[in-house]
Amino acid sequence: MVYAIVKAGGRQEKVSVGDVVVMDQVRGAVGDSVELRPLMLVDGEKVTTGADDLAKVTVTAEIVRPEKGKKITIMKFKNKTGYRKRQGHRQKLTRIKVTGITN
């Protein structure tokens, strides 16, 4: 089984061909191809972690659709002063499908 550990936004994800991953927003239209930076490649029993060897490895993915994360609320409150502040946030995400890992 061939899989790679790639840098996806601020996190690391374990991916293989055909996997669908949700990561931080990537610029591009639906159907565009994206190249992910591999940090480690496992090809059967062989593990590749060297920077020189990983420079030859390419992990390609296709943008499936843009998404938004779940809504979080931020509340600020100070006692006895009447100060209250409410703010919401939804992280912009992108769903991608890994199409190839080439060595």
| Poorly predicted sequence stretches spanning 5 or more consecutive residues | none
Question: Kindly, what is the distance between the CA atoms of the first and last residues, rounded to a whole number of angstroms?
Answer: 14 Å
Radius of gyration: 19 Å
Arithmetic mean of pLDDT: 94
Strand content: over 45%
What is the number of E strands?
A: 9
- Give a quick account of the main beta sheet: strands, pairing sense, barrel closure: 7 strands, antiparallel
| Percent helix | under 10%
Number of helices: 1
Outline: elongated
Order of helices and strands: EEEEEHEEEE
Helices and strands: which structural class? mainly beta
